[in-house]
Write a structure and sequence with these properties.
Elements (H helix, E strand, L loop, with lengths): L1 H20 L2 H17 L7 H20 L3 H20 L6 H20 L11 H22 L4 H25 L4 H22 L3 H21 L2 H23 L13 H23 L4 H52 L5 H5 L4 H33 L3 H21 L5 H24 L1 H7 L1
Helix pairs in contact: 1-2, 2-3, 2-4, 3-4, 3-5, 4-6, 5-6, 6-7, 6-8, 7-8, 8-9, 8-10, 9-10, 9-11, 10-11, 11-12, 12-14, 14-15, 14-16
Length: 454
């Protein structure tokens, strides 16, 4: 204990000399001595070292901020990690959990402010050393929280990560208000916030709720970006929306046939509907609040409107396909059951049981043809609606989408000719032809008005 106090006094003296003489080298020597002290004096038990590390870090923070020596923060962080991780692996006990979590949070906050204080001052930029400390600090708090809480307190780990994300959001807001021109830090900090917030989702939820949470998070990030005019939150919102979309498709692929499939009113369509609503919401955020440039605003509006319509058409088409696929599975199960019953009671040769048709193949083909026909009709109607809205609302993107979908549907109908039955082939051509005739009649009647719109 006496040796520890003496070495701490030497460290304090070296810090004082470095401040008076404006010599960063002396501060470096003092920091190295401060973090070597626990090993030299043989601190092998208890948690007093945690208090010691907090005091040293606060002193380094004061010196680095006063003398504008950001390199000291990186050196102090490295020393803290070496001492703390060694203590965590060799000395930590479960009864130290509360004090350890307190140390982790205090250290996390200390190094955040150690790195952003310059960014809060007029005319000063966050340096490359600060980015290193910010990133390493994020890894430190994330790893430590998982190591400490995952075993016995996994159920709160997601909430803790969300709280860390809120801290980063608050810091990002302060930096953005102080210096909105520093693009790097105004993207880096929102990025850290989104990493923790997005990580909290799979820690707290599973299954389809992960996609739901990520999609809602994307909408929230775009709303925050609109309120504080922060491009970083927009970029992160886009990334999270893509993550939510990918997870949504994973959930859609993990689908098992059921005996009764109810179109529209089911979990998968609900997720797709949420993705569509969020896409329209983000498009509205772009339109209402804009972006850093007019071109980015227009591209954002167009991109998310296209995504919303593609997902809408995909979701409706998927419902038709799944409904009739389920009917096909039911027919197959029924045929298998009848064959099983036949072979069970048939005496002698069972070949007649396997040769029985009972119209199952015709029924399955009929269901497949019905599904393809309804899908073609759906695409045609959707193309007509998009085209009408595009002309009526003077939205070029919708008009082009409608025309492209008309062409795709026409190609699909032509390809379906080779697989559809005669009745379904006739129905597909008639419906597609009628809608095309109505569209051409509308254009011929209102072509002068449409020319003005175009």
């Amino acid at each position: 204990t006496v040796a520890g106090f003496m070495m701490f006094a030497v460290t304090a003296l070296i810090f004082a000399m470095s401040i008076v003489n404006a010599t960063m080298t002396l501060s470096v020597v003092g920091i190295v001595g401060a973090f070597v002290t626990p090993a030299l004096v043989g601190s092998s038990s208890g948690y007093n070292i945690l208090f010691y590390l907090v005091i040293i870090n606060l002193g380094v923070l004061a010196i680095s901020n006063f003398k504008k020596w950001p390199q000291l923060n990186a050196l102090a962080f490295a020393g803290t990690m070496i001492n703390f991780l060694s203590w965590l692996m060799l000395i930590y006990k479960d009864e130290y959990l509360a004090i350890t979590l307190t140390f982790v949070i205090v250290t996390f906050i200390t190094f955040i402010f150690a790195t952003i204080l310059r960014g809060l001052k007029v005319g000063e930029k966050v340096e490359s050393t600060d980015y290193f400390v910010l990133g390493a600090n994020a890894l430190f708090v994330g790893y430590t929280l998982v190591a400490l809480l995952d075993k016995d307190y996994h159920w709160i780990l997601g909430f803790v990560f969300a709280l860390i994300a809120l801290v980063y959001m608050a810091v990002a807001y302060m930096i953005n208000k102080a210096d909105p021109t520093d693009k790097k830090i105004n993207i880096f900090l929102p990025g850290l916030a989104v990493v923790f917030l997005s990580s909290a989702v799979p820690l707290q939820f599973d299954g389809a709720w992960v996609a739901v949470a990520w999609l809602i998070e994307a909408a929230a990030l775009y709303y925050i970006a609109s309120l504080i005019s922060n491009r970083g939150f927009q970029v992160m919102g886009l990334i999270v929306y893509i993550l939510g979309g990918l997870n949504m498709f994973i959930q859609l692929s993990d689908w098992y046939y059921v005996q009764v499939y109810i179109p529209i009113i089911n979990k998968d369509f609900g997720i797709i509907l949420l993705a569509v609503i969020v896409a329209y919401f983000i498009s509205c955020m772009y339109k209402r609040y804009g972006s850093i440039t007019v071109d980015i605003q227009k591209r954002g509006i167009t991109a998310f409107i296209i995504v919303a319509n593609v997902l809408s058409l995909y979701g409706l088409s998927l419902e038709i396909d799944r409904y009739y696929s389920t009917q096909n599975i039911q027919l197959s199960n029924q045929a298998a059951k009848e064959i099983s019953d036949c072979t069970k009671y048939q005496i002698g040769d069972n070949s007649n049981c396997y040769n029985r048709d009972n119209g199952y193949y015709a029924k399955q083909n009929s269901l497949k043809n019905t599904s393809n026909t309804l899908t073609s009709i759906l695409w045609t109607l959707y193309a007509a609606i998009l085209t009408a809205l595009g002309f009526g609302r003077r939205i070029v993107g919708l008009r082009r989408m409608g025309l492209v979908l008309f062409v795709i549907t026409a190609i699909k109908v032509l390809l379906d000719v080779w697989s559809l039955g005669q009745l379904y082939r006739i129905v597909s051509f008639i419906v597609f032809g009628l809608i095309a005739l109505i569209a051409s009649f509308a254009y011929a009647k209102y072509k002068d008005r449409l020319k003005e719109i175009v």
